[in-house]
Amino acid sequence: MSLPAWCPPYSSRKTGANGEDVYCVCKRTDNGDLMVGCDGCDDWFHFRCLKIPETYKKLVYSFYCPYCQAGVTGPASNGSRDLPRTIWKRKCRLNTCYNPCQSSSKYCSEEHGELYMKTALAKVEIPGIPHDAEEQLVKDMVKNSSKVEEFKTLGNDCFINKEPPGYNPLYGEMIAGDRRLHELQNNIKELEDVTIMTTKTRLEGLNNYLKWLEIVNAMLASQGNLNVDDDATNAKSRKKSAKNKQKKCICGYTSDYNIPCPAEELVTAYRPDIPTVRGICVKVRCNKHSSWATLQMEELEQQLSSLESYENRLRLLVKMRKEQLHIQYYEQLLRRNK
């Protein structure tokens, strides 16, 4: 991946002419403008320099600068096969709101959900019916349909969604010759067999690796290599309850999720003065890779959720396309029978 046209070549310079710290692609000091920290190289970048509107500031979930996304710095520069990318939180559905959605919602709050629906309802137009009557009609539809599935099917003609009985050359020709329908079906197959399967495999691999890492940490702790308080010589610290002590463990970061060896072998090879063993970071409470497992897990889960939502949209498009073809088929039958 190449750098954007507006982005200057990478410079490792960290100080300016006066010895002050400099940041961003512009290599200037912190002038108080809104900035965002890169999760790959730990540098800071101005929203303005990155061409990102400041209204997006609450929507950043995991940010990677142009250099990390191009593999110049960050995880990819250290041998990782996958280039990182910035992940954004889903924006509130209300056009004028730039807050992230609440969990399992399309809105940032109930108030904005109500405002969106009121705005949408105000746009409803049914020829020959006054606006007040339109609003009442929609309210009655919701009130009289207690089940969601029943509400979804109101007004549908069930025969439109059914395959015509028996073999029909006309129908077979329309379906077999429809390029759009086959394109959508092929997209669904590729999404299921390749993209979603790959993401699920990576997620499963990460889960297995974290279970293996948990075993490694438990074995190291049982040998007394990790569960030692930083303030062991401090009498006051020794009085703390076990509940309040922070459990130590090795970082465990790796560029992939492959288990390199049995847990016993890694424990045998572990040395407190060696930063990596078998390509795995074995530092205790590593600041460089802080919360890497949680971030990777959340990123993969969000990717899987987005892919499954996309699959559902494709299936809806297939259903809509079939409905269109069915309508065309029955219209042609009517013309032929006249």
TrEMBL record:
GO terms for molecular function: zinc ion binding. Keywords: Metal-binding, Nucleus, Zinc, Zinc-finger. Residues 21-71 form the PHD-type domain. This is ZYBA0S09-03136g1_1. It comes from the Eukaryota. One of its GO terms (biological process) is positive regulation of DNA-templated transcription. It is found in: Nucleus. PANTHER family: CXXC-TYPE ZINC FINGER PROTEIN 1. Pfam families: PHD. One of its GO terms (cellular component) is Set1C/COMPASS complex.
